[in-house]
Design brief:
- This is Beta-lactamase family protein.
- Keywords: Signal.
- This protein is an alpha+beta fold.
- Helices cover 38% and strands 15% of the residues.
- The strands form 3 sheets. The chain has an 8-stranded antiparallel sheet with strand order 2-1-12-11-10-9-8-7, sandwiched between helices. Strands 3-6 form a two-stranded antiparallel ribbon. Strands 4-5 form a two-stranded antiparallel sheet.
- The longest helix is centred in the N-terminal third of the chain and has 36 residues.
């Protein structure tokens, strides 16, 4: 009997290993084919299945160097920062510092003076799920002012003026993607923890997970990739200021997989917070929204996903808790169609 059990265990181990190898080869084949068709766009992909990690990457850090992109190369993950911010919000809920149903009034910095029509109406969960109705930062105008560093001109006064001059929430309760919503969430976190957003995300995510390739304000490192706009021109990484909680983070495939590993391990504080963010807080005929990301369902799967677009790079992160897998795709060009096509192909042919 003991011999049979040992043999069974060995067979299961071999089977899982073979499945993992097959999984890895299929994804690598898709990524390699895409790179051969688009050799000017570097790519790094990380994926995790049943706690086993796999990576593939193609291209160079930039056109001036022979150094190849790998799993530790640094990309601008932009709005994927929002799922980290929402995880911090959920951690604050678990620690009884805030409630998702709390109105934002008492948590905002002193400079904010809400109009009477807005008082005691906007909940923290509304900010997280993009349904607050607040006016947003006009990125189109900011890009016209400075296409390389559009958020440079956004100040605390910019934010307070937007909120304080708002007299009606004309689309409150309806989905409208919001940068200012996540900026306010960062400020709420700073108030309840009495620390900067930078300190909070380091203390609660970056340092506990030992994310050695994840950066906030200072990202002057050797293994950083170069971003390109849709026309192929070089694009600087954003230097976020007071809007940091909406898009600050620079990271790598390896660190994002470490984060996903923590999310999928239900014993971690990050996973407990993630499970809270996975509840549906907004739903219409087009979408379901948790705290910080989209929720996509079919008859067999529930997928949690978030994309990130800067002016020069794009990325997407998603995971399936029930089937215990996650994936991160990072591109050196702002090309959302390529990003989505890659994810769709990998999902349809392998993960589904």
């Amino acid at each position: 009997m003991k011999t049979s059990l040992k043999l069974l265990a060995a067979l299961v181990l071999i089977s899982n290993f073979c499945f993992g190898q097959d999984f890895s080869k299929k994804i690598d084949s898709i990524i390699k084919d895409n790179y051969q068709k688009n050799p000017n766009i570097g790519i790094s992909v990380g994926f995790i299945k049943d706690n086993e990690e796999y990576y593939t990457a193609y291209g160079n850090l930039n056109s001036e160097t022979p150094i190849e992109i790998n799993k530790n190369s640094i990309f601008e993950i932009a709005s994927i920062t929002k799922i980290l911010t929402s995880n911090l919000i959920a951690q604050a809920v678990i620690e009884n510092k805030i409630k998702l149903e709390d109105c934002i009034d008492k948590y905002l910095p002193k400079g904010y003076i809400l109009h009477k029509n807005l008082k005691n109406k906007i909940k923290i969960s509304d900010l997280c799920s993009h349904q607050s109705g607040l006016p947003d930062i006009d990125f189109g105008k900011l890009i016209e002012l400075d296409s390389q560093q559009p958020v440079n001109s956004v100040t605390e006064n910019t934010l307070t003026s937007l909120v304080n001059n708002c007299t009606e929430l004309t689309d409150y309760g309806k989905f409208r993607y919001s940068t200012i919503g996540y900026t306010l969430l960062g400020q709420i976190l700073e108030k309840v923890y009495d620390k900067t957003y930078d300190e909070i995300i380091r203390n609660k995510i970056i340092e506990p997970l030992q994310l050695t390739n994840t950066f906030t304000k200072d990202f002057n490192v050797k293994n950083i990739t170069t971003g390109h706009n849709p026309n192929g021109g070089i694009q600087e990484f954003f230097k976020w200021n007071c809007t940091a909680s909406a898009g600050l983070i620079k990271s790598s495939a390896s660190d994002m997989i470490t984060y996903l590993k923590a999310v999928l391990n239900t014993k971690t504080q990050i996973a407990k917070a993630a499970i809270l963010t996975e509840k549906i807080f907004y739903k219409d005929e087009k979408r379901e929204i948790g705290l910080g990301f989209n929720i996509s369902t079919d008859e067999k799967n529930t997928i949690y996903l978030k994309s990130g677009d800067s002016m020069g790079q794009c990325s997407i992160l998603c995971y399936n808790r029930d089937k215990n897998w996650g994936i991160i795709i990072l591109l050196t060009e702002r090309n959302s169609k390529m990003r989505q096509d890659l994810l769709n192909k990998i999902y349809d042919e392998i993960l589904k």
